């Protein structure tokens, strides 16, 4: 199903676009400044609300997106202080279901505590809540906006730790076709293409990417056995997006996308696969009464085979996990007069799915149990937010009400003869939650501004957390159908300083508290259960710096967080413990030099402090510092030589530590290839 989509995308990408046009409210056609290739300005986005400036927000531009040493989106997002995946491994060498992302060190959880949107559409997996990172092509993005801290607004439920907004590339008349091919010293390859063409007074873009490789050994040399395997991977992704005006002030966006990702982790036969197909329609009105109407559907599936770490045979076949996500929103911005923006709206999301798996004996390979687990969750939200701009002062405030439901929950295990072994049929339940956010930003002259904000937010437990137990031998982790919604309360104060052109500094202090935080709590040495902790407190400092001088550019960020569990679990006291997978300190820095068009040299440094694997503050993941590089040189009018380097010093990055059994992140990796249409 995916390969035909990629072929279609490639055909569109290589088609010759006709001369482009600008569409505006008067239906006029306008040429660009060079007078040769008119540009299309139609866009399926509303203007950014002025109140955004009151919150801790980071923008990542396209040039930075395209020059990550690994070429992967998680590497790009790692440039933001406080961005964290559940584990340190990237989307080539981790289990897809562990790809949860969060911000501000709010606790390790394989489910995302940050809301990730692609062109306004939530992209988290409906069953597990992870982000399909390998499906996101950096080449297809124009910009990324990261807003740290919880909040209300559209799709506010889920934005517990913040929001990551990914904006796709629009029509690019100067580079209608972009393509790249790179290979590394292990023979792994990465191929991508992006094309855009005029579609009436609008445009269409098509993207495709194929990554494959035998991978590296995640297992240290002294822990390898004959069954040890490299982290092999192969992933495809493709999308087609069309944006066109359907009335003088109304734009329509349609998008379809698909991906397929296959990986092998640690042992031969420990194969996982994830796949998805997404579709969305978005209608945006730019007139006096502005509006944004969106509807989307997601179809996802996941499979995973678990291999015994002692006998190296299959013990679990998670053969099928179909899930569906549907949702939409409607936002209205009525005319309010100069300096005022009022946002009123409603949004809805529903996730449903079912796990189907079979457990086998490690000794005889006989079937032991057949299991099913699943249900549905939904969230209907109503929101209102108002921004005022009063000269140098911007004020913003909003309320949100969410009606959440958890229905149809079950877990059922039967023996090979079909006789019941265990069963949980959860009661349906629902709840109302009211959250808020409010902030202000004040300019104190041309160079300095101060901002402050307070906010709250909620996150529903996922179907995975509610109903699916799992085993990472010898530890069993039980699900918990009684999990309650997480709720965050927090505030922040920040300074933005621009003493001269080309120099930008930002400092933010924050205090966030997640009540009912969901965590894997140790009950016995080999038994854990998902539970609601009383709270996780996270207080810290964030710092960003940006410097531009001639051909040189520097950007850096760092975060220091004091995070701890407040209270105790049902069985073991955890009060004062640092949440698992949370470093106290992390930092990123990037220096680039661009002396002429097509030439670029960039070096990056990332440091992640010590982390604990579990809630018991045991099994340390040591601090790690990695260096990366990116180099490009023109070979012709539109052709570039590209060289990338990951982990230049070959730092040993421990990504998992289970009682001394460890996994490692990517070793030194050198890439070289060509890029067309830079």
Question: What do these coordinates show?
Answer:
With 678 residues, the protein is mainly beta. It has a single domain (2-676), classed as Maltoporin, Chain A (Beta Barrel). Helix content is 4%, strand content 57%. It has four helices and 37 strands. The strands form five sheets. It has a 26-stranded mixed sheet that branches. A five-stranded mixed sheet has the order 1-6-7-4-5. Strand 33 (624-634) and strand 34 form a beta hairpin. The chain is globular and about 70 Å long. The model is unreliable at 1-37 (pLDDT under 50).
Features:
single chain; 678 residues; mainly beta; Maltoporin, Chain A; 26-stranded mixed β-sheet; 4 helices; 37 strands; 57% strand; globular
How many distinct folded domains? Answer: 1
Q: How much β-strand is present in the residues?
A: over 45%
Number of continuous helical runs:
4
Terminal Cα separation, in Å? Answer: 30 Å
**CATH structural class:** Mainly Beta
The chain-level mean pLDDT equals 89
Structural class: mainly beta
Rough outline: globular
CATH architecture: Beta Barrel
Largest sheet entry? 26 strands, mixed
Helicity level, as a percent range? under 10%
Radius of gyration: 25 Å
CATH superfamily: TonB-dependent receptor, beta-barrel domain
Low-confidence stretches: 1-37
CATH topology-level name:
Maltoporin, Chain A
The total beta strand count reads: 37
């Amino acid at each position: 199903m995916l390969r035909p989509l990629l072929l279609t995308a490639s055909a569109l990408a290589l088609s010759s676009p006709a001369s482009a046009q600008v569409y505006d409210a008067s239906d006029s056609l306008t040429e660009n400044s060079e007078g040769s290739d008119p540009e299309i300005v139609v866009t399926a986005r509303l203007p950014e609300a002025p109140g955004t400036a009151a919150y801790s927000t980071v923008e990542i531009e396209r040039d930075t997106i395209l020059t990550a040493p690994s070429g992967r989106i998680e590497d790009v997002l790692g440039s933001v202080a406080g961005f964290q995946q559940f584990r340190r491994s990237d989307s080539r060498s981790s289990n897809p279901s562990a790809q949860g992302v969060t911000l501000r060190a709010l606790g390790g959880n394989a489910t995302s505590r940050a809301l990730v949107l692609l062109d306004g559409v939530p992209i988290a997996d409906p069953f597990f809540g992870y982000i399909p990172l390998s499906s996101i092509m950096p080449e297809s993005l124009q910009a990324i906006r990261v807003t740290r801290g919880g909040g209300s607004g559209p799709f506010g439920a889920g934005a517990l730790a913040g929001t990551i907004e990914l904006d796709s590339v629009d029509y690019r008349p100067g580079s209608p076709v972009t393509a790249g091919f790179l290979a590394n010293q292990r023979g792994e390859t990465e191929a991508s293409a992006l094309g855009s063409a005029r579609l009436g007074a609008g445009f269409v873009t098509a993207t495709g990417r194929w990554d494959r490789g035998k991978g590296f050994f995640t297992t240290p040399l002294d822990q390898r056995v004959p069954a040890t395997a490299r982290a092999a991977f192969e992933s495809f992704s493709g999308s087609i997006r069309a944006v066109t005006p359907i009335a003088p002030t109304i734009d329509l966006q349609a998008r379809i996308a698909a991906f397929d990702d296959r990986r092998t982790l640690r042992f031969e036969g420990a194969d996982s696969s994830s796949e998805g197909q997404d579709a969305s329609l978005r209608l945006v009105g730019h007139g006096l009464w502005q509006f944004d109407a969106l509807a989307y559907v997601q179809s996802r599936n996941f499979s995973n085979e678990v291999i015994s770490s002692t006998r190296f045979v299959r013990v679990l076949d998670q053969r099928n996990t179909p899930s569906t996500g549907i949702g939409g929103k409607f936002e209205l911005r009525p005319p309010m007069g100069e300096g005022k923006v009022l946002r009123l709206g409603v949004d809805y999301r529903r996730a449903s799915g079912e796990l189907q798996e079979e457990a086998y004996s490690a000794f005889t390979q006989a079937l032991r149990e057949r299991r099913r687990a699943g249900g549905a969750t939904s969230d209907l939200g109503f929101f209102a937010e108002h921004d005022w701009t009063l000269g140098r002062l911007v004020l913003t405030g909003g309320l949100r009400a969410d009606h959440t439901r958890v229905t149809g929950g079950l877990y059922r295990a039967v023996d090979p003869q079909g006789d019941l072994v265990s069963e949980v049929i959860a009661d349906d339940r629902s709840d109302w939650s009211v959250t808020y956010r409010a902030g202000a930003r004040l300019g104190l002259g041309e160079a300095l501004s101060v901002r402050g904000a307070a906010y709250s937010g909620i996150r529903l437990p996922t179907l995975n957390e509610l109903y699916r137990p799992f085993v990472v031998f010898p530890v069993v982790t039980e699900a918990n159908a009684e999990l309650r919604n997480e709720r965050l309360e927090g505030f922040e104060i920040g300074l933005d300083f621009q003493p001269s052109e080309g120099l930008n500094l930002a400092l933010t202090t924050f205090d966030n508290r997640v009540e009912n935080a969901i965590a894997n709590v140790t009950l016995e040495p080999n038994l854990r259960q998902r539970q609601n902790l009383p709270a996780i407190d996270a207080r810290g400092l964030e710092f960003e710096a940006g410097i531009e001088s001639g051909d040189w550019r520097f950007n850096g960020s760092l975060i220091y967080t004091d995070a701890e569990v407040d209270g105790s679990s049902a069985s073991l006291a955890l009060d004062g413990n640092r949440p698992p997978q949370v470093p106290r300190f992390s930092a990123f820095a990037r220096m680039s030099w661009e002396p002429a068009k097509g030439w670029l040299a960039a070096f990056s440094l990332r440091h992640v402090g010590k982390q604990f694997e579990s809630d018991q503050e045991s099994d340390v993941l040591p601090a790690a510092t990695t260096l990366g590089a990116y180099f490009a040189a023109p070979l012709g009018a539109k052709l570039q030589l590209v060289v990338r380097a990951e982990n230049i010093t070959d730092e040993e990055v421990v990504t998992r530590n289970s009682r001394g059994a460890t996994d490692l992140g990517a070793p030194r990796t050198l890439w070289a290839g060509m890029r067309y249409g830079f």
